[in-house]
Amino acid sequence: MTEALNQTFDYAAQAAQFAEQTSAPAWLDSLKAEGIKAFGEHAWPTRKTEHWKYTNLSALTKANFAQVAPANSTDLSADIAKPLYEIEGLNAAQLVFVNGVFNSSLSSGIDALTASGSVEVVRFSDANEAQQKAIHSQLGSITLNDQHMFSALNAGQLEDGVFVRFVKNKKTETPLQVVHLTTAQDQAFSVNARLLVVSETGSQGVVVESFVSDKASQTALVNSLTECKLEDNAKLFHYRLQLEQEDIIHLGGMHVEQQASSQLESFHVGLGGKVKRVDIVVNHEGAGAHCDLKGVYLPQNNQHIDYHTCIEHKVPHCTTDEVFRGIIADQAKAVFNGRIHIHPDAQKTLAELNNRNLLLSNKAEINTKPELEIYADDVRCAHGATIAQLDEKAMSYMLSRGISRQEAEVMLSFGFINELLDDLAHHSIQEKLRPILASLFDKGPFGKDESLTRHIV
Questions:
Q1: Is 158 helix (H, G, I), strand (E, B) or coil?
Q2: What sequence ranges are listed for the domain SUF system FeS cluster assembly SufBD core (predicted)?
Q3: For the chain, domain boundaries
Q4: At residue 25, does pLDDT exceed 70?
Q5: Phi/psi of residue 78, each to 5°?
């Protein structure tokens, strides 16, 4: 057996042992046991594993991630922490976790949010008997641990999580922001993040997931899992903002169940990392459900990012609009695999999938695979993918108008994703993201020119 194989098996063994050492409330023991068992039954992904063909997990073997962050690393001052995740103008209630541990001093607004009676928010560890029963009945019910290795590991390593319930026929205007902040440490460590959202019949709510870090080189492995259940006529605005420093490893999943006439608007943004992988699965279980799934990914340097999406149309009259755009620079690599599966009973389906990519370097790489699998005959579906470089005609036009090449490159690159930002329902999130994303493009041969960032935002 080769040394590389030995290392991967060592990681799997360490992860399983670490899962047995973590402690969750006793009423979650059965879910933890199921997760550990399912994780142990998975074969380690290799280049011959179709869904992991272009994503190498060898980074997991370079350090011992089977440990938590040092206890003294979980306290952080507001002056340092808040600028990393604060979204000015959003006025969100915030639950903040630092290196996997809940930080009450940084969290705010939860009591005021729940006092309205339109939403319930509780950590698993603080749940009362009724909440425990609700969480236990819903948690893991739509996540297929036998198909998603790191979702199983998340369940096995479960210690705490967040339960959100949007109350029946209530409209919640105040967003809930769940923040997972990591800081650089001398030792490698794991963060296990779990979120369960239940949108009851006729409810409406907003959830923002923010994954951020300080700027120092990261040593964390973040394994995050989000489950969303939308009952009849419920509407959920969901944002997943992955803005961590480039050395972090992040393995994430989002699993959704939609019942009749429910509406999901979900937006994802991902900066690249050492390894970043997000699996998104949406199940249309009730007629008339609509899913609007958008996202942008922007790896650079030697970063890697991978989005795998799967939309399961199981019933008639459901619609999906999925658009992902990527800008890949330097020697970075990106992977996009989008699948829409139309089951035999899903007549009258309307579904579109589009993936567009812009390569800013001859060494940048994208592996894209849009898929349609259709077993119904009365549907309207389309899918497509494009890979291109900056438009030379547009570049020549801008140069002829006295715009510098560097500024023209920034404007054309940012314009490629700005259309998706413009469509976001919450303007304050647009304003938060624009300067962050714009700053990725303003690095010329002499370093960063902040005047370019100001110009396009």
A1: coil
A2: 186-416
A3: 3-286, 393-457
A4: yes
A5: -65, -35
